[in-house]
Write a structure and sequence with these properties.
- The complex is a heterotrimer of chains A (525), B (123) and C (140).
- Chain A has helices spanning 7-25, 28-56, 78-105, 111-130, 134-153, 159-189, 194-201, 208-225, 233-240, 243-269, 271-277, 280-300, 305-325, 329-359, 363-366, 384-391, 396-399, 402-405, 407-421, 427-441, 445-471, 486-504, 509-524, and strands at 59-62, 73-76.
- With 525 residues, chain A is mainly α.
- Chain A has two domains: 1-278, no CATH class; 280-362 and 387-525, no CATH class.
- Chain A is globular, with a radius of gyration of 22 Å.
- Chain B has a single domain (5-53, 60-119), classed as Orthogonal Bundle (Helix Hairpins).
- Chain B is 72% helix and 0% strand.
- Chain B is built from four helices and no strands.
- Chain B starts with a helix and ends with a helix.
- With 140 residues, chain C is mostly helical.
- Chain C has one domain.
- Chain C is 76% helix and 0% strand.
- Chain C has helices at 5-27, 36-54, 56-62, 65-88, 103-135.
- In chain C, helix 2 (36-54) runs parallel beside helix 5 (103-135).
- The longest helix of chain C is centred in the last third of the chain and has 33 residues, at 103-135.
- The chains are: A mainly alpha (525), B mainly alpha (123), C mainly alpha (140).
- Chains in contact: A-B, A-C, B-C.
- Chains B and C meet through helix 3 of B and helix 5 of C.
Chain lengths: 525, 123, 140
């Protein structure tokens, strides 16, 4: 056996196996190393796959050696390899961070479960990306979603529970819509393989079941990716989840949903159906603009740092879907690049925000929440003052003058914020550049203005943080300088460095995204 | 109408389930609605997969008409997913009941708002 | 319900057959309707039945928590292990054909172990869910 030929399977299987092993081992150190090793291996695999695809073209792997239309196929093209790189890279960076972060956020006896869930979530996200089978997408989607609900519910505030419940309801509705859509496609074509489906759909695209499938899939996936009016689950989920979970979700989960949308639009339905015969691009354009302006506007008035950046995520997703609405190589490139760039920047910001909770925590709040002797669960109601204190360290009145105490953290957040705004020299600039190119290409000059104007809103909400952290006087008696531990700072700053790096050297991001966009558009025609 | 009996039932369950999820404020009832909604999908897949007079797809000289096994396998997976979702949802409902002393959505919202107001959090 | 004589007697009579039926469903899955998922649920239902009549504590002595947790993770590992065995024997992931020199036997062997893994995991998960919900708010 040569490992190189089986990398597509190992990409998913290694994180998947690490989860039950973490449960079996039970010791939190062993569980941590198990899942982290799997995530690093997955990252190495993703890099190797990315190189292979760049050199040798699309890879097709047949699970169980059953040939494609019958068996499950793992299919890796340029876009797949790029998203795999993002997801596994984020997991590889964030797990070491999570180790020191959850010390303070999650009771120790459930640490091994946290790692198991993290492994499952990672495996699910990688699975969604890599598989070429429609029903498989649903199964992996549910694996990652269920793990996500658990991870969010692990947050210390009791509102994490309601946030997880809300996400569970909306996420399940979204997933069920997706299965209904896949069901219609299966009933029409008799196949579940995406490539096979696409070829059998030629000629019957306008039939009613196919249109119904497109509608169900669009709504279902939009729920999952938090397109503007369907985003209600996102702010609460991001605000109350443990910080490594927020960072990982913000960096990967919605991005993988965008990937699924691109996959269905371009590789299954084909752009002629999606863009020419239906008013979908116009709808998507409208919703994207609503997200860019509405969500960013709401973000300005938030009083909680995590919630501010959660709304900013909804706004940034608007840029990604805006790129999709153009139906051009440049627009698609902008979407794909922004998916990557925003993932890194937002991941870094949420990691740093998690560090703030540690830096300004009062001694009483650092102690783990009281637990029942059997570890069956925590009683939030029983620990009123301390837990609530610790759960809301991100309100702005507690962040006043933070820059004096945590200069590195604050500077990092500012750099990440610059990338969200799209300042030249950061990764965010590159994606906006391609968005504007795509808008100019279609002669929609007013859109250029809209993109710039919405960036101003981003300036406003980032400024809100800067104003509080740098220009307000710190509360009396709290001037001791105290950064977050290095284990948390280093991963966050790695990602910040990456946003700068990808803002200066675009050969990896734009190169891959352009190739991927061309590949998708070719196939779609 | 009778020809499409299976589809009529499917659509009815789908809409009824979704309606319950949206219209009910009780967390448990919402989960029941979600389950009904998911059940409609099981029917959506299985109804077209069944051939009248067809038997289980195990090849045997006595039979020549077989039902399509694939929808059943897919739906077995979907059922497992549904069970997992329901179990997790109920577990969350139990935890919410312990933390808030209520499983009514509006009461929970009210308690959060009073808590937010005391902290000065904008929602 | 511990002191209800009828339930106790009927339970004692039925539970072995429920467990036996689970094994039948498991091993007959190759030739008729059945398989690991159903078998796991039936087996777990037998234990749940026992717990309902003789009390949760007794059931937890028969199948303690650590065993249930081990079951639910080891089943997945058996499944994944079959897949990796396919890799090591020169096929693709989850390739059953290479598990035996005779490909048909290989398929039999592969599905046997996969179904075993499924049954163990499903049984473990069902019991875990039952234990968690049943013990909630009781011991605390």
């Amino acid at each position: 056996m040569s490992i190189a030929a089986h990398l597509p399977a190992l990409q998913v299987v290694l994180p998947l196996i690490s989860a039950p092993l973490a449960v079996l081992l039970r010791r939190r150190d062993l569980a941590f190393w198990m899942v982290t090793a799997a995530a690093w291996a997955a990252f190495a695999t993703a890099i190797q796959l990315w190189l292979q695809v760049a050199a040798g073209g699309t890879i097709s792997y047949h699970i169980g050696s059953w040939p494609p239309p019958w068996g499950i196929e793992y299919r890796i093209d340029r876009l797949t390899s790029f998203v795999l790189l993002l997801v596994s890279g984020m997991a590889a960076v964030m797990l070491p961070y999570a180790r020191s972060s959850i010390e303070r956020e999650i009771p120790q006896e459930s640490h091994y479960l946290f790692y198991a869930m993290f492994g499952l979530c990672l495996a699910g996200l990688l699975g969604i990306t890599i598989t070429g089978d429609a029903f498989n997408i649903f199964v992996f989607l549910e694996i990652s979603s269920l793990a996500t609900y658990v991870l969010i519910a692990l947050g210390r505030d009791r509102r994490a529970l309601t946030a997880a419940y809300q996400y569970l309801i909306m996420g399940s509705i979204g997933a069920t819509f997706i299965v209904i859509g896949i069901g219609f496609l299966y009933l029409t074509t008799g196949t579940l393989n995406l490539a096979d489906m696409a070829s059998r759909l030629r000629g019957v695209e306008s039939s009613r079941p196919v249109l119904a499938a497109l509608a169900f899939l669009t709504v279902g996936i939009s729920l999952k990716l938090a397109l503007f009016p369907l985003h209600q689950w996102l702010p609460n989920a991001y605000t109350y989840a443990p910080s490594p979970v927020t960072a990982f979700l913000a960096a990967t989960a919605t991005k993988v949903s965008v990937y699924v949308l691109i996959r269905f639009y371009f590789s299954v339905f084909g752009e002629s159906l999606v863009y020419e015969r239906l008013p979908l691009p116009q709808i998507m354009l409208g919703l994207s603009l609503l997200a860019m302006f509405g969500a960013s506007f709401i973000a300005i008035f938030q009083n909680n740092l995590k919630r501010l950046f959660a709304y900013s995520s909804v706004g940034q997703i608007g840029y990604i879907t805006l790129g999709l609405s153009f139906d051009s190589v440049n627009g698609l490139t902008a979407s794909i690049v922004h998916l990557f760039n925003h993932g890194i920047a937002k991941g870094a910001i949420f990691l740093l925000i998690g560090g703030i909770a540690v830096g300004i925590a009062t001694p009483g709040a650092v102690s783990p929440a009281p637990t029942s002797p059997k570890g069956a669960g925590r009683r939030e109601a029983a620990v009123p003052s301390n837990a609530r204190e610790a759960a809301t360290p991100h309100t702005f009145d507690r962040l006043a003058g933070l820059a004096q105490r945590m200069p590195l953290t604050c500077f990092g957040i500012v750099l990440g914020g610059l990338s969200l705004i799209g300042v030249p020299g950061t990764a965010g600039f590159i994606s906006k550049w391609y968005l504007i190119l795509a808008a100019l290409e279609q002669g929609q000059f007013w859109l250029v203005g809209a993109i710039l104007l919405s960036s101003l809103l981003a300036v406003a909400y980032v400024w809100h943080f800067i104003e509080v952290a740098y220009f307000r006087a710190p509360p009396v008696g709290q001037v001791a300088r105290k950064e977050a531990p290095l284990a948390m700072l280093i991963p966050a700053w790695l990602l910040i460095a990456a946003t700068i790096w990808f803002g200066l050297d675009t050969s990896v991001t734009v190169g891959t995204a352009l190739d991927a966009a061309r590949q998708l558009m070719d196939k779609a025609q | 109408m009778l020809d499409h009996f299976g589809y009529v039932v499917t659509v009815f369950l789908m809409v009824a389930g979704l309606f319950i999820v949206i219209a009910r404020g009780n967390l448990i009832k919402k989960l029941i609605g979600l389950s009904i909604f998911q059940t409609s999908v099981y029917l959506l897949y299985i109804v077209p997969g069944k051939l009248i007079g067809g038997t289980a797809p195990i090849i045997s000289p006595q039979f020549s008409v077989y039902s399509n096994p694939l929808p059943h396998v897919l739906i077995l997976t979907a059922i497992v997913v549904g069970v997992a979702t329901l179990a997790l949802g109920l577990a969350l409902a139990v935890r919410i009941r312990e933390a808030y002393d209520s499983i009514e959505e509006d009461e929970i919202l009210m308690r959060d708002q009073t808590a937010d107001a005391s902290e000065g959090v904008n929602t | 319900m511990k002191h209800d004589l009828v339930l106790r007697v009927i339970g004692k009579l039925l539970i072995p057959y429920i467990l036996l039926f689970a094994l039948y469903v498991q091993f007959h899955g190759d030739f008729g309707p059945g398989g690991g998922f159903q078998a796991g649920v039936i087996f777990a239902a037998g234990i749940v039945f026992y717990a309902l009549i003789f009390g949760l504590e007794n059931a937890r002595q028969v199948l303690p928590d650590w065993l249930v947790e081990t079951m639910l993770s080891s089943g997945v590992l058996i499944y994944a292990g079959v897949g990796l065995a396919g890799l090591f024997l020169g096929g693709n992931y989850l390739d059953y054909f290479v598990l035996d020199p005779n490909p048909v036997h290989g398929q039999h062997r592969g599905i046997f172990w996969v179904e075993a893994g499924v049954a163990i995991t499903v049984c473990g998960v069902m019991l875990k869910i039952f234990y968690m919900f049943a013990s909630r708010g009781r011991s605390e």
